[in-house]
Amino acid sequence: MCGRFGQAYPRMSLKDWYRAAAMPEFDPRYNIAPTTNIVVIRDGEEGRAGSMMRWGLIPWWFKGPGKLPLLHNARSETVHEKKLFKASFRRQRCIVPASGFFEWQKLADGRKQPFYISSRDGNPLSFAGIWDSITTGEGERVDSCAILTTDCNALMQPIHDRMPVVLAAEDWDTWLDPMPSTDEVLLPILKPFAPDLMQLWAVSSAVGNVGNQGEELVKPLA
To answer: Tell me, what's the pLDDT at 1?
Structure first.
């Protein structure tokens, strides 16, 4: 799963990295939790651009005011089948840029040790995402998204059995294509990221408090 990540790259760095025509203003954050507004990358009529979305998918048919499920992740193995996700999977896909993400390892004594996972070369991780849009009763449009997950790679295996789908650069165009696509085209690119391109280390348990922010959250434990 992916329940916490960071995005601390400057706005212009993301704009250049994704060759985007536009990028919104945002503050760097080191401890992002579901329901937060996050930066996503989409392709549209005017080309590739960044925008802000709620992390936690709200399906277009959800009318409320019932309790909304916390749809911040979607399993890549079943995303093309589930009613909640399949329409977005075929035609409304995005990339969620991340500096890195956190996962917790269960220890023998019952405690959980957080780890920070990032790219070895220092470039952003490009999480595969899907998005949807609703209009509230007050006429406000709300765009929202979910991050796809897959089996863990060899690096993460000792920590957790799932990880976000990290897209290789050569798959960005296919994934972001705003035209409807097929399972045969999309599903093969939703695979675990190469372990030799990632790194991880143990970090402070302070990341468990969503109110905590700051670069110290991603520094290795002494």
So the answer is: 64
